[in-house]
Amino acid sequence: MKPPLLATLIIGIFVVVVVSAMHLSPQLQHFESRVADYISPYSAATHIVPKQWQYVFVSILSFGVAALTVTSLRRGRIALLAVALLIELAAVSWICSLYRVFFQPLPSMFAVAIAFIVADRYTAITQRGRAVTARAFFSDRLSKEQVQRMIAGDIPFDPEAKTYETTVVVCDVANKYDLAEDCEPPVFGKITEEFIRRATDVFMQAGAYIQTADAEGVVALFGFPETDAHHGDKAVRVALDVVDQFHQARIGNGEAKCDVHLGVSSGTMIVAPFQNGERSGLITSGEPVELARRFCVANRFYGSRVL
After folding, report:
1. Domain total of the chain
2. Residue 78 is part of which domain span?
3. Strands (DSSP E) along 32-161, which ranges?
4. Which of 7, 43, 74, 252 is most buried per CB count within 10 Å?
5. For residues 90 and 85, what is the distance between their CA atoms, to the nearest angstrom?
């Protein structure tokens, strides 16, 4: 059973039990009657909504609000929805009173409020642990959107050594050695910095994990940490997009600064966590990285852009 579903069931059952126990309390029944008289006078009613229906409403609202809160990434909007439900329940009770039907709204209102508070606190606690893990292992290696999805639990990650089926893309400056000879060191450094920034941004926005990004090239993994059965097709499409973007940048600048070569290789990668002092990281190793690097270099001999 998925964690959000299990959490919804536990919170829903807990809220139903708590509200039902509160509703059976004589002291609370007296309080409910006094509050309800301000909205729907009991003495003027000719019909009363049975208690069985009260339990049905409480159950539906408890499980519904818990499910929305646990699975939503925007808890602020769920809070507004909960407030709207409270107002609507009061409005329903008042409308029923116009037809001389007494509907006690407080049990349902308690169910909405308690379900939201408990689910919100549960989500905050579980996300805190995932946030620490996500930022420790994936800060500056995944896009902010991917990190947020990991914190929310949409991308599961277990910090244990295991294998992943991935596609590796290695991107490097095609005419790197010519630029090193022809340009002054500050100019070469600026060109390399711009290459790293542009290539990294494209890969991150496509959902790739950045293994390395330095003067020796950018290494991106597709299919990790989010598993994707079509990681190979996606990696090739992104590689072609990188070539196109750098080509368009050269045309826009009106000068031939740098071009790119890319190597693509699919296979099994081993991913394992490691601790370097106070800093956590991931070891990613496998034959696809070495093959992708060789393909990237081979472009120079074949006159191609992507291999």
Report:
1. 2
2. 3-136
3. 47-48, 101-102
4. 7
5. 9
